[in-house]
Structures are given as structure tokens and as C-alpha cells.
Amino acid sequence: MDAIAPSATSAALPPLMPAPLKRLLESRLESVIQREPDRGDASRWRQWRLDDRNWQVAQPVTFTPYASARPCSARCRFCSETLADGGAHAAVLRPGADYFDRLRAALAALCGLPLSYSLSGLETTDDAAWMLAMLDALQEHAGRSPVENSVLYSNGAGFAGSAGGRLIERLQGFRLNWLELSRHHFDAGTNQAIMRFRDGQLIAAQACFEDTLAQLSRRLAVKLVCIVQQGGVADLTSLKAYLDWATRQGAGAVILREFSQLGPAYRDNVTSHYIASTRVAIDGLLAACLADPEFTAHSRLRHATSGYYFWNVVLDFRGMEIIFEASDYTRMHQRHDSGRVYKLVFHANGNLCSGWDPRRNVLLGTEPAPTPITLMRAPRSADESPRP
Ligand code: SF4
């Protein structure tokens, strides 16, 4: 996440952060990065005209070309694509023949507006041809309009396939800032019980994942993503084991995420039950780390980030960056429905929206979407992770 206007006072700790953790961190952080702009801070908003309407657009703002060319290669038990809150479903739309023309038209309408690229949705690497064409369009745009950074979120499946080398080379040429690579446990069997890669996905195997991680790390900055949960990394002991494994793999960074808080808008279903029954609080895990003499002997607290629906705390640990992170979908939806633009998502139906619903908060494009192929709800992008 890019840093804007760091402030070195603990008084600015993220409002969403639980109070006990705030008390624990008070005066111990080097700075707090206020990523969410104050509504009254004109320097953090850009007025932008789209489709004959003026919008206030947050700075920084990320642009996501939502990846949904194919169903995901995994079926994570917590996947936000299978939550239900009654809205339209980005994950079930597939790009049509005019998709890239419309993507380029949307980018042209944003020309001059500073963006960052946040590449997510379903699994971007599952369809190499779509991914390569998407990167071409985004790179063309970056050649004529400011793009501050770019991040790809991936389960790694496509990198382990026959197109893997080509994708890695292309991402290097794209100047990706970093890749967030999901692996929720250091043991392949335990990880598979959580991620449920489909039959034939090589990345499910331990040796393949570790080899793919090594290949990626030689060419790109990689951050491992572990969503903490019962049955996976759930306490200090399993966290230390994960960090030991990550260290052996030469990882430079590990992100530890809590499931997003869902709020009352989400109906009960299998996914929400799984999330409720396996949730591990990240603030409790961080507090346990900070109370552990072995952990604190090798760690240094750095900064926190206050985002528009997430917060995080960053530490150094044995030369590795560790990020503890949490988010709240109720807050995210409030911001997306606020009449201001906090997020830009280009969907497979050709709509540019200020959120994850392809028919809500539409900024550009009114074409009817391709026919949905299932009735799942996709409230936001994959991997249950804050993708600013
Ligand atoms: S969380 Fe991500 S990797 Fe897992 S099933 Fe959902 S889209 Fe796929």
C-alpha cells in the first residue's frame, strides 16, 4: 500500500483498530499513514468528470480490471465471491468480444487522473491470454497518464502452469511493484483443506509451490499472504512455524490477515458460517506476538496504516516485513455508496464502477451484462483481502 503523508503521532491510530490494541501500540509506532483522505482535505481529492457528471475522487485511488475470464482455479472456503448480500455478481460475468476496447475507453476517460493498479478479482493468472492483453492495455495507459504503483494478488496457479515463465517475464517488464501470493499454511495438505485447488492444479503440491515461489522471487518482489483461521495459522505457535517456513523460502514479507468483518448486510450461507466459525482475531495475534519475549527480541514495530476500510500494523522481524491487517466490509460499502469515489473497478460487463458490484455505483457504461452463469454473490474481489 502506498504511503501518503506519514504522521508520527499515535493519536492518529486507525479508527477501526480495537481499543486494547490502540492502547498497546500507543507511542510505540514510528508513524501512522493516513491513507483514507479527510473529506475536507482538498489536497487529497481530485474532481473528475465522467459521463457528464463531476466526481470527487480520493487520492490515492486504485484501479482494478476485475479478473473473471474463467472460474477460479481454487475454491477457498472463505472466498468472498461466495458470500451473499443480494447484489449483482462480478465473478460470474465473462468478458465479451469488445472487452478490451471498453477497457481502453475507460482508461482513456481516466487519462490524467493519478491511479495505482490493483490487479485482482478471481485468479488473474488462470487465463494467460486475458492477463497478457490486460497488462498491455494498462501499460499503454501508464505511458500517457500517471500510475503510481501496481500490485497483483494471486493464488499462484498460473505461474505453475505452462505459461508461468512468460507471465513472470511479462510482470517484470510491466514493473509490478509487488505480488501478493496466497498460501494459508506451510503444510500442503492443511493448505489444500482451506484453498481447495481444483484437480490438476500443480500449485497445490508443496514442492511445486516452493519452486514457483523461488522462481517468482528471483524476478519480482513477493509478499506471502496468510489468512489466519482455525484449522490453519491460528495462534502464536502456528504463526511462528509459518514464519520459520517463510524464512526458509527466502520470503521478504508476510501479510497476516483476518477475515473481513461482514456486518448485517450479508445473509447466512456456507461461506459466512465458515468465516464465523473459524475467525481468528488479528489484534489478539499481534498482542500475543508483542507479549512474547522470543518474538520481541527479533522484531521492531514500524508503522500503522489507516485505510478507508482497513488498518494494518507493520513490523520488522528477522529481516522480514510482517504486516498484521484487518478490514470491515460495512465500512467499505458505506464509503462506496457515499457519492464520492474511493475505488475504481472495471468489470467484465464493460462498466466502470466505484465498487465491486458491476451494476451499482456505475461511473461509465450502461451496457447490459453478459448472462450470469450462477447465482452466487460477489461483493468484492477475491481472497478476502483489503485491496485498496
Ligand atoms: S479467495 Fe481467491 S484464490 Fe480463493 S477461491 Fe476466491 S478468488 Fe480463488
Provide keyphrases for this structure.
disordered N terminus; two-stranded antiparallel sheet; binds iron/sulfur cluster; alpha/beta; 15 strands; TIM Barrel; 388 residues
Gist?
Helix content is 28%, strand content 21%. By secondary structure, the protein is an alpha/beta fold. Strand 11 and strand 12 form a beta hairpin.
Cα Rg: 20 Å
Output the CATH topology.
TIM Barrel
What's the domain count? 1
Strand order of the biggest β-sheet: 1-10-11-12-9-8-7-6-5-4-13-14-15
Just name the CATH architecture. Alpha-Beta Barrel
Please tell me what the overall shape is: globular
Bound molecules: iron/sulfur cluster
Q: Helical content, roughly?
A: 25-40%
Question: What is the arithmetic mean of pLDDT?
Answer: 91
Beta-strand percentage?
15-25%
Give the SSE layout.
Elements: H1 19-25, E1 31-34, E2 45-50, E3 53-58, E4 62-65, H2 99-109, E5 115-119, H3 128-142, E6 147-154, H4 164-174, E7 178-182, H5 188-195, H6 206-219, E8 222-227, H7 236-248, E9 253-257, H8 270-278, H9 282-290, H10 293-297, E10 299-306, E11 310-317, E12 320-327, H11 329-336, E13 344-346, E14 352-353, E15 362-364
Parallel strand pairs: 1-10, 4-5, 4-13, 5-6, 6-7, 7-8, 8-9, 9-12
Antiparallel strand pairs: 2-3, 10-11, 11-12, 13-14, 14-15
Helix pairs in contact: 2-3, 3-4
The structure holds iron/sulfur cluster (SF4).
The site of iron/sulfur cluster has 12 residues, from loops.
